[in-house]
Known about the structure:
With 103 residues, the protein is an all-alpha fold. The chain is built from 4 helices and no strands. The chain has helices at residues 2-18, 28-39, 41-59, 71-102. The longest helix has 32 residues, at 71-102. It is elongated and about 55 Å long.
Amino acid sequence: AALLAIFVAAAMQEIAVSLGTSLYFAVFIPAILVASLLAGIPAGIFGVLVTIPIVWWAFMPPHFEFNPLTKADYDRFAMFLLWSSLAVYFSHLYREALVLLRK
């Protein structure tokens, strides 16, 4: 589930880049939310860990090579980690609430 969500998000990010936007992680946070809602915390964490090198390699200039990160890039990674960890945690809370409501 996580790989499929990340693959779809990467395709959407490629379309967004071709249209001229430079929001590196914008489409990956909903993908991580969907993956963690469908498959739980491990899938969400796996999605986060896979997304970081994909964005660094494919979408940050120069494209398709790893380059040294700037302070702004570190800030982008930190904000992505913050928002994605909140998405994974809230999806975990939602899954627990569903279990309690079903009892």
